[in-house]
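Hey,

Quick one before I head out. I ran the complex with guanosine-5'-diphosphate overnight. Inputs first:
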Amino acid sequence: MCATCGCGHEEQIRFTTVGAPEPGQYRQPEHLEDHPHPHSHEHGHGHHGEPAREHEHPHPHPHPNGSVHSQPSGRTVPLAQRILAKNDQQADRNRAWLAERQVAVVNLMSAPGSGKTTLLERTIAEVGPRFGLSVIEGDQETLLDGERIRATGCRVVQINTGAGCHLDADMMARGLAELAPSPGSLVVVENVGNLVCPALFDLGETYRVVVTSVTEGADKPLKYPQMFAVADLVLINKSDLLPYLDVEVSEFEKNVRQVNPAAQLLTLSATHGDGMIAWYGRLELLVTRLTAAPP
Ligand SMILES: Nc1nc2c(ncn2[C@@H]2O[C@H](COP(=O)(O)OP(=O)(O)O)[C@@H](O)[C@H]2O)c(=O)[nH]1
Ligand SMILES: [Mg+2]
């Protein structure tokens, strides 16, 4: 269970590669180990091309007061703090795994319905092959978004979190192992639709993008400041609806700046296509920067 917000149960999490893989479409998962690695409780090694993950035994026992006794020392540590610290360690391992392969990852976060999947569908159709784009989809239930992405011909792994309201670094490690992105390629993660918890969980991504849409109202950056504060880029989507709404883009911009002066901003319409070229420019920059860096 996630003690930060009380969501999620490990046994409910499911990973599905959506659609039958076509011959030669998937690379065989490569083995990180350069030595035999019988299953043990040693730490720091990935299995089957997966970013290394910590095996924790025995599991800590949560207490109703929000604390945990870690065994065997019996020390009491605030559970939320401990879970986020553990997540950060896994995120660092994911980052190292990705850097080794020069794979860039965009973590796409927003409220449900802001247009993340629509944005992805258009992005894949227009520049997917250029970036070797593949996708990790996060939703509590259903393969619906995974199937939408799969219909574009793009490779996609759907993660269903059950009661969980966010992806975490451990799910990301397992999703990456399943996806096996090609070296030098771009992975876009569509996080669970939620403007709160995904902001707290570092996945090891290269770039954090928060999508907000003009129909949500310009006050959201102020109401959910944590989410907007972690963004490298804020996309203001559904600009085609501006003529019908009593809302100004300048209001969004002012409120985003208030919580995150460094964030970049782009206004676009995923359905009509306005502003998409600038978005592709950001993706291009990400991929070229990463592949220019020494592995
Ligand atoms: N008018 C308009 N509708 C959009 C735009 N982007 C997405 N939508 C619609 O918003 C709804 C939710 O989109 P979806 O991509 O599923 O949102 P997600 O939950 O963030 O993945 C759908 O009905 C989309 O057609 C846009 O740029 N303009
Ligand atoms: Mg979606």
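Residues 116-117, 145, 190 surround magnesium ion (ligand 2) (CB under 6 Å).

Talk tomorrow,
K.
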